[in-house]
Amino acid sequence: MDAVIENLPLFLEGFRNTLGLLVLAGIGALVLGIIIATMRISPVASFRGFATVYTEIVRNTPLTLVLFFCAYLLPYLQYSPGYFTLATIGLTVYTSPFVAEALRSGINGVHVGQAEAARSIGLTFGQTLSFVVMPQAVRMVIPPLINVFIALTKNTSVAGAFFVFELFGAARKVTNLRGDEVLAILLAVAAFYLLVTVSLGLIAGRVEKKVAVLR
Amino acid sequence: MTSVLYDAPGPRAIVRSRVLSIVGIIVIAAGLVWLVLALGAPKVSANGAEQPGLWDASRWDVFLDVQVWRTLGQGALNTLRMAAVAAVFALVLGVLFSFGRASDTRWIRLPTTIVLEFVRGMPVLLMMLFILLVFSTGSFWAGVAALSVYNGAIIGEALRAGIASLPRGQREAGLAIGLTPIATRFRIEFPQAFRQMLPIIIAQLVVLLKDTSLSFVVGYEELLRAGLYNLTNFFGSRYSFSFFLVVLAIYLTMNLLLSWLARVIARRTGSRSGGVTPDAKVPPVKPVDPEIVYPAALGNQSGGAGIPSAGGL
Q: Which of A71, A140, B131, B259 lies in the 20 to 30 Å Cα band around B57?
């Protein structure tokens, strides 16, 4: 136990970096994901094709490979803003198609009858989207989006293998220093991760329940 | 696809959308061409030395060496072996977890729920390190154990959701004809739940295949370590970009094949699952979009790969 208490500053620094990666990559993925999702449902065929290919390729690439590209090959191509930024870029790119799919499934999940009803009482395209479809879609999208962010929280640990000092990096460093108390150290790190993932999960559950009542 | 949202386009709208589409193609193609040319341009490093571009033959000649292909093949085989072993254990564990989670006995249900929550909230990577250091299993079994526990938890949750979504009459009917509760679960509920959740389970197996690449951290010689670290160390960083592209292509081939299989199976089971009772007016099991109905079951390490959504609008 004392190994954990002694090295608490290290863990806290790692936790800060984990949260930093989560927030920055989360915002980035949200922006990129909205763009991709818009392209995916747009009436312009070439944008649709591009978004589909992008989604398929990125979703079927292991995160480790994406981060390897960012950590080793981008500096090799003479772009090196530091490993934290590089990992943020990698996580952003990797998470964006999942965000896009969550958004798209939310819009697809709105019942066709809703749009038909809106159209038949004479609402225009813009009115249909903004007054009928979107308010329902946004509610349905939030639980899957939170799940994407839970996955992102866990994915930040991979950045620890690519020179970013976050929680997993802290765990590796401290277990190297104190080989005798591995169990306590790893449980402590797990507790930090669970703090984020479980609380996000609880929020998702509550939102889901609210949405279920509304429908 | 979105024709419900607006009137059918007239001639002018069709022309406009076609023009936009062509402009889009040109913009995207120009971007790609620029990228390829920029990567191919010779680089001048800080000390003035000029290196050949990334498409230059001197960066690709290693692939004439048979040993390179042998190393890559060995790496891919190791990846597949880990994925196969872990998939079997994950399925077994998933079934056990789902029974534990749906058990009538509180003393089984509660601990299982806690274990599941714990496992699902933790990164696979941490679990691998944990198992490697605490149980000193060696890298292969550390990777297999972490992947099977983690994916087993998610498969278990999916199966439980499948059992919960069955009509209550199934269980009641099983009990009424004199089967024990366990026999009912095994012979009546579980086969239906499994068939309904098969697409999610296969999508999860794609995730498992992708996540085997994490085991490079604990030192397992899989495709990523063999192809990117070992080969680059041996042949020099001159070839790192070429190795990266080849490894990426191998991963994409494996994962896209498995995703495609998932899609084929999803389509086949999707059309069949409606007919639990053939004479029912309303299909008892609604075809579901797993991403919407069971997002909790899909809250996974790297997200599920490719199940097309049912598509409302």
A: A71
Q: Under CATH, which number does the domain B62-293 receive?
A: 1.10.3720.10
With an 8 Å Cβ cutoff, are B299 and A205 in contact? Answer: no
Minimum CA–CA partner of B212 in chain A: A62
Q: What is the pLDDT along chain A (215 residues), one digit of tens a residue?
A: 777 888 889 899 999 999 999 999 999 999 999 899 888 877 778 888 899 999 999 999 999 999 999 998 888 777 888 899 999 999 999 999 999 988 888 777 788 888 888 888 988 878 888 888 888 888 888 888 998 999 999 999 999 989 899 899 898 888 888 878 888 888 899 999 999 999 998 988 888 787 765 55
* Residues A13-49: tens digit of each pLDDT: 999 999 999 999 999 999 999 899 888 877 778 888 8
Report CB contact under 8 Å: A144, B117: no
Rounded Cα distance between B16 and A209, Å, is: 43
pLDDT of residue A204: 85
Domain layout of chain B by residue ranges: 62-293
B203 φ, ψ to 5°? -60, -40
A127-134, long-range: CB < 8 A, 24+ apart = A128/B5, A129/B5, A133/A107, A133/B5, A133/B313
Query: Which positions 142-201 of B are in contact with A (Cβ < 8 Å)?
Result: none
So what's the architecture of A2-214 in CATH? Orthogonal Bundle (1.10)
Closest partner residue to B123 (CB to CB) among A65, A68, A193 is A193
What is the count of residue pairs from A and B with beta carbons less than 8 Å apart?
A: 200
Residue B214 DSSP class: G
Q: Determine the length of chain A.
A: 215
Cβ-nearest to A158 among B1, B125, B255: B125
